[in-house]
Amino acid sequence: MIHQRMIIWVACLCFGTQTLFSQSVPAPLKRFLDKPMVRGASVALMVKEVNKGTVVYEYESERQLIPASVMKTVTAATALEILGEDFRFETSVSYDGEIRDSILRGNLYLCGSGDPTLNSSELDTPKDSILRLWSAAIRKAGIREVTGALIVDESIFDTEGVSMKWMREDLGSEYGQGSYGLNIFDNRFRLYLESGVAGTTPTIKYCEPDMPSLTFHNYVKAVPAPADSCFITGFPFSDERYLYGAIPARRSHFKLTADIPDPALFAARYVHAFFQREGIRIQGAPSCHRILSRMGQWKETTRKTLITTYSPPLKDLARIFCFVSHNLYADAVFKTLGLRYAPSSKEAISSFGRGAQVVTQYWKQKGIDSSSLWMFDGSGLAITNKVTAEFLCDVYTYMALRSKASEAFVHSLPRAGIDGTLRNMMKGSSLQGKARLKSGSMSRVLCYGGYMDHNGKRYAVVILVNNFTGKSRRMRASIEELLLSLFKKTTPV
After folding, report:
1. Of 73, 237, 431, 490, which sees the most CB atoms within 10 A?
2. Which biological processes are named by the entry's GO terms (predicted)?
3. 273 membership: H or E segment, kind and range
């Protein structure tokens, strides 16, 4: 045995590891690895039959790679396990002081628990319907006037709504919205531009919802070609927003989407104005915990709850953030997991950090090696996130076989050729509807993780590709070709 190992080692030195290893690489994978756009890239693959736990295909499965939004599957799985599929976020309206002669001599409070669904465009509910429930509860309590203010209490999470690990180009973008103790409108607003002839600067028409506190620095140009390279950027809690890039000339209604920089303060102002229109007069200026704490004016008082409203159940939220890759939903759930972590008195740790601690510890307790998991957010937007194909396959296998929330997790993943971000993948092929996968993409990164149902068996499937060259659409087509080839035969071999 010793001599045999020595011969193999010498052969590796003489002929290279790739020559020997290629003998165990299936032909479809070898064709994929030989593509010019994959040469120089880092690739990891694992396919495991769920019921038997048998590894069918494996390539560099212990290599730590950036998973992008495939990390959302880890967030979803852990949350369904710990919080339960019926968990709901709560938002309450309360007051301090006393009510006399229809006047509240005190403050109204809007207390958040991180709910990402308030006035969310992802829910099939009328705009402001939840606010109407709140105002009805206030009027039912006999309150027509408030001598104090409407104050948003978003203190359940810290003020690091945007991860320090996110890239500068993501800040202020429509997908880089922060997650806070109180969120509203998906923490996004829409900005509409009108462009003239090529070479001119488009004019800003209006925002939805209205953002009167923001100052826009417009460096956008109109161009003749049907190009769209325009984006908005800016920092959290800053009222300065910068517009760069180009939009097509002669457009009367060009839409951009960006993040709300201070959702709690915006919500306080928005809800204050709504209550005023509903006939509830509030004398004080709307504010939030962050502002009042910074000014030394926050006071802990005894409050009485008027109404508590709830989000849809977690199983529905997981389906949303995996289907449409909603970063806010995923990060809000991730930070909620972090509430289960109690740091020591000497440990300074953010809400993102607490979430990572809970996730890592949980899977370790379940017997899955989580040492390869480097998790800095729940959405996968941080480029410092790292994970192995093996870890993901182990989690998927656990969720399919042992989890009480198995059905909720599996159905949170979009079906290839049918749903969500996978609606165009493998469409019309033999695997349409048989693959449930979460996609993940960023610059030179494309990944997939989930399940494949084939010939009466279920397989956990993970493919991670980092640092490829060329267009993402070409890489997507190559991965699609690889998966179709791997599952082409009656039984994968």
Report:
1. 73
2. peptidoglycan metabolic process; proteolysis
3. helix 263-277
Q: Cα–Cα distances in Å, from 354 out to 212, 330, 455?
A: 35, 15, 42
| Segment 254-292, tens digit of pLDDT | 999 999 999 999 999 999 999 999 999 999 999 999 999
pTM of structure = 0.92
Contact 272, 137 (CB under 8 A): no
Dump pLDDT digits (tens) for 17-29: 333 233 478 899 9
> In 16-110, which residue ranges form alpha helices assigned H by DSSP?
17-21, 27-33, 71-82
**What residue type is assigned to position 427 of the chain?**
K
150: its two tokens: 């409407």
Contacts of 360 (CB under 8 A, 6+ apart): 370, 373, 375
- Report the distance separating Cα 176 and Cα 166, nearest Å: 8
Sheet containing 150-153: which strands, arranged edge to edge?
Answer: 287-288, 150-153, 108-111, 90-95, 304-310
| Residue 60, Cβ density class (10 Å: 0-12 exposed, 13-18 middle, ≥19 buried) | middle
- CA-CA-CA-CA dihedral for 137, 141, 147, 152, to nearest 10: -30
User: What is the rounded distance in angstroms from the CA atom of residue 80 to the CA atom of residue 274?
Assistant: 35
DSSP state for residue 187 in the 8-state scheme: G
Nearest to 461 by CA among 19, 138, 45, 89: 45
Contact between residue 75 and residue 359 where contact means Cβ atoms under 8 Å apart = yes
Read off the pLDDT of each residue in 117-128 and give the average, rounded to a whole number.
96
Query: Rounded distance, CA 226 to CA 466, Å?
Result: 30
- Per-residue model confidence as pLDDT tens digits over 76-113: 999 999 999 999 999 999 999 999 999 999 999 999 99
Structure tokens at 430: 């033999």
**Calpha distance 460→57 (Å, rounded):** 11
Are 445 and 466 contacting, i.e. CB atoms less than 8 angstroms apart?
Answer: yes
CA distance linking residue 391 with residue 15, whole number of Å? 31
pLDDT band at 226 (very low <50, low <70, confident <90, very high): confident
Higher pLDDT, 25 or 40: 40
Cα–chain center distance at 117: 13
Compute the distance between CA of residue 95 and CA of residue 109 in angstroms, rounded to an integer: 6
Domains of the chain with CATH codes? 25-85+315-486 (3.40.710.10), 90-159+264-311 (3.50.80.20), 168-259 (no CATH)
Q: How far, in Å, CA of 166 to CA of 177, rounded?
A: 11
Residues 6+ away with beta carbon under 8 Å from 453: 434, 435, 436, 459
Instruction: Tell me the sheet residues that pair with 191.
Output: 207, 256
